[in-house]
Prior knowledge:
The chain is 49% helix and 14% strand.
Amino acid sequence: METGLKNKVVLLTASSEGIARAAAERFAGEGARLAMCSRNESKLRKAVDEIRSRHNVEVLAEPLDVTDFAATQGFVRQVAERFGRVDVCLANAGGPPAKNFLSIGIDEWRKNIELIFLSAVNLAKAVIPDMQKNGGGRFIAITSTSVKGPIPDLVMSNAVRPAVVGLLKSLSVEFGKYNITFNNVAPGYTATERLNELAATRALAANVDVRDIHEKWSEEIPLRRLARPEEIADAIVWLASDRASYVTGQTILVDGGRYPGVA
């Protein structure tokens, strides 16, 4: 299937591991040029080396904390100068820890609002002018099924991630005339380090083995298994492709059917 992504420039934040790392691999497989960043420089360099060796594509990579807004805007400028444009932007950031509401201080709320929501605001402000100038683009955010229904122990995610959905819906209205689409991908339980950390927290609280938590989650999913990061990445690549040119302002759940709602 022709995706139209060959030689396109794809910027992916927090892409040294997990879903965004899998997306980088998929985009490279389509012949796209990549701009990758992550807080963990050693993991980032390892990911970049593997992608370059497998796909022989051009990759720009820099260590970056997306809550450093000036540095993020500087990275976007660097990408535009290096490649001449930004065609696709994948907004991704680490999720907040599992905690109950009364144990969370105000400073931690502010930190996670910056991490999850304001990083997406800042990234959009940085890439939209370039996309306008070049006749269009794709902006995709990795969120969570918590935007559809709360996940126990993840009150900060439940509260803040829906703001990203509201932001992208608003931007889809404002910038649709420039041929820029804005969509969210909401993964369900996906086999990543982030999920392992959550499973460990739940296992400790319940005094059970981590494998018991994974099995419990699998039983809640109609497909009876956790997602692979590559399966979420496939949805991201589709939204970035020419095949999804008329899809905007949407949140695509990739959760194995776990969300029970009809809307």
